[in-house]
Amino acid sequence: MVIVIGPQDPGSSAQGNDAVWRAVTVENGVAGSTRSFAQNQLSDFVSAVHRTSHHPDRIRWVWSSTNAVYPSLLRAGVSVSRCWDLALNQTILRNAATLPSNQVQYSPAVDLRTSEPAPAGHIPPRHDPQQVSLFDAPTRPGSRAEPGIDQLVEEFAAQKGAVDDSPGRQRLTLLLAAESQGALIAAEMYHEGLPWNADIHQRILHELLGPRPDEGERPALMQELAEEIGRTLGTSRLNPDSPQDLLRALHSAGIEVSSTRKWDLMAWADRGGSSSDQRRAMIGPVLRYKQLYRLWTANGWHWLDEWVRDGRFHAAYVVGGVVTGRWAAHGGGAMQIPQTVRDAVRADPGNVLTVADASQVEPRILAAMSSDRALAVAGQGKDLYVGIAEIGQRTGSALKDRPAAKVALLGAMYGATSGEAGSLAPHLKRLFPEAIGVVENAADRGERGGQVTTWLGRTSPPPDQRWFDTVKDVSTASAEARSNTMARSQGRFTRNFVVQGTAAEWALCWMGEIRRRLRSGGENGGPMSTSLVFFVHDEVVLHGPESEAQVVADIVRESAASAGRLLFGDSPVDFPLTVETVDSYAEAK
DNA sequence: TAAGGACGCCAC
DNA sequence: AAACGTGGCGTCCTTA
Questions:
Q1: Which terminus of chain A, N or C, has fewer Cβ atoms within 10 Å?
Q2: How far is the CA of A126 from the C1' of C16 (A)?
Q3: Would you say the C-beta of A168 is within 7 Å of strand C?
Q4: Which CATH superfamily hosts domain A361-500?
Q5: How far is CA A478 from CA A448, A470, A483, in A?
Q6: Given the DSSP bridges, would you call strands A351-358 and A577-582 parallel, antiparallel or unpaired?
Q7: What are the sequence ranges of the domains in chain A?
């Protein structure tokens, strides 16, 4: 059963909390019964429908945007099993329709584009969630009128029709369902939050930086380092925060680097023969300073004040925020929590964290989508890179150890042409022609300005007119060089798009399956107490009672296999995980 | 003085 | 050593 909900009348966000909303049941594409309720009665309405339904889990709630509706339901303690996020699905369909070979005919009934992608949860952490009403979210600053229920019903029909009439309907349907499910998960993870122990975080900061400094002051241990650097380089009152000043000081000390980058400095230190110890001593304090500077500015006391509330870090995910379909996150650097502070992520007493990491997902995805049997077999029951190295040794190929196999395979997916990855590329192609064929094909298309699609049908955006203009211009040698650079760059993008995007689809299905099982894995088919609390591309973190940990580990593993089957049928590709039950995130490697 | 680019580093 | 994909973000620094 499908139920579309939305405001009775189109209007702006000015409508009050008592605005009239309607719920329209849609059966076989036909709008049926209609019920009305006040917007502030939304959660009551949804739970009443759930109570009176024989199969509440089979209801698909259709709404303009999960971000605009679902957080208030969660705050009222109401969750739903399935939804259809019209805004997210519109984005996918619009893109799909730009590529004729997809044969997707889609004209939106209403424009649901937002000028900015809206983070899940949408509540700035400084504010009290209870005081935020439904539509004061940063959802559509474009001041477009909020669509009314009739438009939403029409739009749903337009989307459903576009999918059903397309040759790729099965996969596309799965993609839209997975994307929408992702929106639910993102909102739920935002709501729940990642358990974050501020005391431990502060201990880490104190140990590495010293006591919290006054506003505008440098932490004590950084200050000491700054002075030491000044002495070592012979530049008094040097400000290491300024790359310009630092580079000047390095040069005046005879350190010939072209930038102040970590790698540049390390390379300089390792260049020298006999004096390399001396060189390391010179740049050592600089490197340490940079490390501390990063911790202080990115995940220091300010970050803690800003982002951790009541022992939780609420990551605001942006579903589909990356062109490839990966999620992005807005605020707090949620997807770049550095190793140095991960020890602050701690399970509540009596609970544990389950950290699950999918091993070598992207190459495995490539194996599955290319039906490359050799690559699939290489990863069966073992680390895929190790498997490749074993084949390499047997066949006398240059891919003779794990590091070589890894660099070669990543290089193939990123489009590396030079260095070790570049020189290993032909060897890889000889062993796995089908897999390499898929990425080369995607790159070829991209270089010519064409578009590519993921396994489920997410379509890459076409390059803009400026790109075509630049690529066409080969009038001079430098123009031709520019043309080649642009073309190759686009080729690397489309090359990576198919793999990264399909991996994102696998991850969506993986999480969706985990969620589905958690919701019914408890007593009498009820929900378990464990929930998903964190996600980064190919890794999930769950938090819940220790007593559930064993079952949760099984669920996470089975869901990975299930996601593989959902996408690729009975493909021989394995999707193994590293699953660890821990008290601290830092314990999970 | 605000905006935006450059830089550099973090994550996968 | 760099070059080889997708991002976020804080700071410095230049420009309007």
A1: C
A2: 33
A3: no
A4: 5' to 3' exonuclease, C-terminal subdomain (1.10.150.20)
A5: 19, 11, 8
A6: antiparallel
A7: 2-192, 199-304, 361-500
